[in-house]
Specification:
By secondary structure, the chain is an alpha+beta fold. It has three helices and five strands.
């Protein structure tokens, strides 16, 4: 069976051990190329171990997919990470652990 770079697969998963440190906020300024509060480019990722009940796989959600999984906008997620306080994450982690979520995965050209 041959796969292509555009092939996608759907998995129904839970995320049993979601942690705040698995959410990464990238804040870059095009002027100074450093992290700053006046950044023009802001993006978030969420790297986690997912299970479908039979096996475990490590996945990373980017941008809009990250926002969907965590039920917050990228701007909100960045603010949570800046403050290093996110007491509501315990509720998010419990939902990710107990509620099956359907995700689309596929090959990527980036490492």
């Amino acid at each position: 069976m041959t796969t292509t770079a555009y092939e996608r697969h759907w998995l129904t998963i839970t995320i049993p051990n979601a942690r705040t440190e698995d959410v990464n906020a990238y804040i870059e300024c095009s002027g100074c190329c450093s992290r700053c509060d006046y950044a023009e480019e802001k993006r978030v990722t969420f790297t986690f171990f997912a299970t479908d009940g039979s096996d475990t796989i490590r996945l990373t959600a980017y941008g809009k997919e990250c926002e969907k999984l965590l039920n917050h906008t990228a701007v909100d997620l960045i603010e949570f990470k800046k403050k290093d306080e996110w007491p509501e994450f315990a509720n998010i982690a419990e939902i990710l652990k107990s509620k099956p979520t359907k995700v689309q995965i596929g090959p990527t050209r980036a490492i």
